[in-house]
Amino acid sequence: MATDPGYSPSELMVSAAARELRDGEVVFVGIGLPNLACNLARRLHAPNLVLIYESGAVGAVPERIPVSIGDPALVTNSIAVASMSEIFYNYLQGGKIDVGFLQGAQIDRFGNLNTTVIGDYAHPKVRLPGSGGACEIAIHAKRVLCIAAQSKKSFPAKIDFVTSPGHLTGGDHRQRLGMRGAGPQRVITDLALYDFGTGETAGEMRVTSLHPGVTLDKVRENLGWEPRVAAELATTSAPTREELRLLRDELDPGGLYL
Amino acid sequence: MATDPGYSPSELMVSAAARELRDGEVVFVGIGLPNLACNLARRLHAPNLVLIYESGAVGAVPERIPVSIGDPALVTNSIAVASMSEIFYNYLQGGKIDVGFLQGAQIDRFGNLNTTVIGDYAHPKVRLPGSGGACEIAIHAKRVLCIAAQSKKSFPAKIDFVTSPGHLTGGDHRQRLGMRGAGPQRVITDLALYDFGTGETAGEMRVTSLHPGVTLDKVRENLGWEPRVAAELATTSAPTREELRLLRDELDPGGLYL
Amino acid sequence: MELFLNSAESANVNPEKLMPMADAIARFVADGAEVVIEGFTHLISFAAAHEIIRQRKRDLTLCRLTPDLVYEQMIAAGCASKLVFSWAGNPGAGPLYALRRAVEQGLPHPLELEEYSHFGMVARFQAGAAHLPFLPLRTFTGSDLPRVNERIREIACPYTGERLATVPALNPDVAIIHVQRADTSGNCQVWGLLGVQKEAAFAASKVIIVAEEIVDEAVIRADPNRTLLPGFIVSAVVHEPWGCHPSFAQGYYDRDNDFYVAWREISQDAAKLAAWLDEWVYGVANRAEYVRKMGDALTRLTARQQMSSGVNYGY
Amino acid sequence: MELFLNSAESANVNPEKLMPMADAIARFVADGAEVVIEGFTHLISFAAAHEIIRQRKRDLTLCRLTPDLVYEQMIAAGCASKLVFSWAGNPGAGPLYALRRAVEQGLPHPLELEEYSHFGMVARFQAGAAHLPFLPLRTFTGSDLPRVNERIREIACPYTGERLATVPALNPDVAIIHVQRADTSGNCQVWGLLGVQKEAAFAASKVIIVAEEIVDEAVIRADPNRTLLPGFIVSAVVHEPWGCHPSFAQGYYDRDNDFYVAWREISQDAAKLAAWLDEWVYGVANRAEYVRKMGDALTRLTARQQMSSGVNYGY
After folding, report:
1. How far apart are CA C59 and CA C32, in angstroms?
2. What is the largest CA-CA distance in chain D?
3. Which one of A4, A218, C190, C259 is most buried, counting C-beta atoms within 10 A?
4. How many CB atoms sit inside 10 A of residue A23's CB?
5. What is the dihedral of CA B121, B122, B123, B128, to 10 degrees?
6. What sign does the dihedral B60-B64-B67-B70 (CA atoms) show?
7. DSSP string spanning C280-312?
8. Is the pTM higher than 0.80?
9. Under 8 Å CB-to-CB from A177, ≥6 apart: which residues?
10. Nearest 5°: phi and psi at D261?
């Protein structure tokens, strides 16, 4: 990352996340980068994307960038407002959500996420916010996308607490526990893209694409374990001019998240 | 019942039922005589009576006599519309209903009600409508009032099917099964009023009042068992002139139920 | 176990949801299917029921709290082999005689019954909507219903130890829901009595929405708190004004009580009922023709205006 | 077992429900009580929280999905000994530092935590509302949460045998619910985000309704499908315009995001937080005074108009 590529790591992450979304899908989305990714996809290749927020807004079309998951702009002109009981029982557990976005203070090689504590639960070094809806999103969304800036600290060999299950110990561990959702399918960091492998190493993060200018060594330096690497390693496409224009001029003109 | 008393048995039953209701109570009510009793009470001593119909209308103030439990007139100008899930889980099971009205094709001495079949369940002589909400009203309403025209057939020694539990085998049988509602407290027939006794015979129907002109023998002739009788037997007050005026001129001018 | 890796066929990119009733029934109601036409006294899709009769669907399992005239007509027409229900009467007007003939005499052919209370049926739909295999509830205690329905069971509370009744989830193949208004994606709104329609729709594999009015999506978005269902769980949208008669649609037309009362005599006599089906169901091509045949009843039943006020969704 | 023979004290014949916040808190929030102030980002009664702080209530068990600034202020003021929750952050603006000081360092005194996920909390309220001792739900599988909270348990489905998680009912002593409008009996209406307020209110022994506007009963009756709660489950009605600031009330005023962002710095420093409480809570007699102190913010936050249309309730 010697020369300025003309976009920020966040812009690249948002662009990469947006490309994971297919038109017509129903996405359970929080604020920040996932929200930007969904609204970017909606302006481009996925005009029929349905955005659902855990606060109850269904089919939200926010006129301004939402600063909270319960921003009033998510309600105005939305398709429906659901109670939180409906959101969790009928929409999420009912199997109506195609994609869930998750972030975490810690993520391990199986995509398990910690948003609860750093250190011991009873005597935490840092008390984090907790699950919110993350645990059930991780279980029920048909697939999960993770977005996180990469570092040895945030991608350790072992996380301090499993708030939200990824692939647990890998393989078909999720299915054996009866989970319908397929779990994490992609991790999008500021350095690389990952999938969760196939065959014997299924359920474990695997580098599939390096961002422009990023080396595999750089990825290794910012990971708490030796990563699996896809046979054919791609280079992540940079954000297009149109993507950058939408992000900067329309979706986050104040640069709140980018 | 030699001379015309100036009112019909139904009018007397409605008037007697209305007097059982206290101002401010929340009543789970069906159509027909219970509906008339509630609306009569609301015009007289209980202006704050809250009428709830299993269809979901809460605080209904029907402008016309409802011909179905889901009459649109129950919704217009009501306080709230609740989904049926809310009605049964939150209102009824949640313990918010003071009084429930029940009727039955058969009722036994303990106030158990049959609205399911005459004869064997698998090969019924007569297939009746079934429970509807009656079973849970019988269990959860803080107290239950029963209205029924009396005959040996409708008040048999043993009913063919217990759809809705009254006092089961009497005594504290309900409480032993964990029911919070106190069960049937009054039976109002076209001949007499009953309570459910006290002490050793608690939970069993007891004649407390004979309607004007009705003898105890007449009551016995229309009952499938030898009834218990209160020490001080009263005579039921006839409907007042004002009650009759309201019933005939305002509440059921077409004589649909009276 | 179904695994959800591909969420390909999302219902909300299908531009072809708006279709005639005949197409919706042909596509989404198969012989032998478990079918729900819900609506508690309000918003009952008689239009769908009549089309099912016309298409001579067979061996259906019909689920509904109150079979009402709508299922009685389907049973009399020979569409059903099983009924799952909680109260089977002609509301306010007596018994359902044709249903009784099926149960008591096996005419036109035997009808299996699976019987709950209203609360039991509500909990079954709610469990189905939530993809739970069961829900606990406090009812049936002391009743004979569990004796004749082995699907009513018990569970011990893991906290208090007390025993609660349970009912199993109901997940029908198709739910048919009539609404006051919908857009062409199936986003739909309802007011007045709500019944169990939301739960029934979420519980079903396919949802057919039948609407008094088809409106622009902007009408839905102007009042999102009125929305019953989002379009992405809806498979077909049918425009069918007066589609609930003799049931009612708040703000559109009143319940036709005269019809419910008259039905008593019709249903008492199998021949009369057959003649009625011949005239009003088989004898018309579709709902529009039925409505034209209603004639003066339309005027008698049309709702008077009592509009609510708007609320402010601004911020 | 409580037996329900006398239903004497029906809340809906009490003509004295309308009262100042100070009276409602004094009467219905006791030291040591289990208290719920709900509202998911929307309609959070900061007015009630501040009055609880002013009345120096102690040893409260505070239950809420998202403690948010509202509980952080109460915790910092020393009102709480226990927190039951599912997500503790400053939404969109970082951690809750004062809450962290209580958990990590026991300041101002130790705070016991009982922790669920959002779904878990929602199910707890729903079970409480329905007078069920528990509800089953599909979550927590593979998570460490059940390891640190023994109230998260399991049950076997009586139909399929599969194991489901359970949470116990939550039945708080009092629920405080802010609404857009209520009548003096407590019949109240809400639009925009609904959160878990209905369930929390039905689950509670006492319900305090705080309203932006007190309206005539006729306003409620003109649109019964908008009603959140019937008055007969409500014990007190408080009129408190701007009672949710810095949270919002759809159609009345916007979320004060600047405040949430500024709070980050305030909560980082115990002394600054104490000074803030001195000025904005202890330093004002009531909410009206707080609102006067808000000054220009009122103009900045006042909602613009975007009215919905009415629907026809006629028949």
Report:
1. 5
2. 63
3. C190
4. 15
5. 40
6. negative
7. IIITSSSHHHHHHHHTTHHHHHBPPP-BPPP-B
8. yes
9. A165, A168, D141, D142
10. -70, -45
CA distance linking residue A111 with residue A166, whole number of Å: 4
**Between vectors from CA D92 to CA D94 and to CA A167, what angle results, nearest 5°?**
85
Phi and psi of D122, rounded to 5°?
Answer: -60, -45
**pLDDT by residue, tens only, chain D of 315 residues:** 344 433 334 445 556 899 999 999 999 999 999 999 999 999 999 999 999 999 999 999 999 999 999 999 999 999 999 999 999 999 878 899 999 999 989 999 899 999 999 999 999 999 999 999 999 999 999 999 999 999 999 999 999 999 999 999 999 999 999 999 999 999 999 999 999 999 999 999 999 999 999 999 999 999 999 999 999 999 999 999 999 999 999 999 999 999 999 999 999 999 999 999 999 999 999 999 999 999 999 999 999 999 999 999 999
Neighbouring chains to A with at least 3 Cβ pairs closer than 8 Å: C, D
Residue A136 with chain D: CB contacts under 8 Å: 117-119, 138-139
Q: Which residues contact C256 (CB under 8 A, 6 or more apart)?
A: C245, C246, C248, C297, C301
Mark out the alpha helices in chain A (DSSP H runs).
9-19, 33-43, 84-85, 134-140, 173-176, 216-221, 241-245
* CA–CA min distance D313, chain B (Å): 6
B54 counts as catalytic? yes
Which of B28, A242, B251, D164 has the alpha carbon at shortest distance from C131? Answer: D164
Start-end of H helices in A120-194: 134-140, 173-176
Compare CB distances from D140 to A81, A125, A135 and report the shortest one's residue: A135
* B89/chain D closest Cα distance in angstroms: 5
Q: Do A182 and C225 touch (CB under 8 A)?
A: no
- Put simply, whether D173 touches C (Cβ < 8 Å) is no
- CA-to-CA distance for B46 and B41, rounded, in angstroms? 5
User: Is the bond preceding C108 in cis, omega lying within 30 degrees of 0?
Assistant: yes
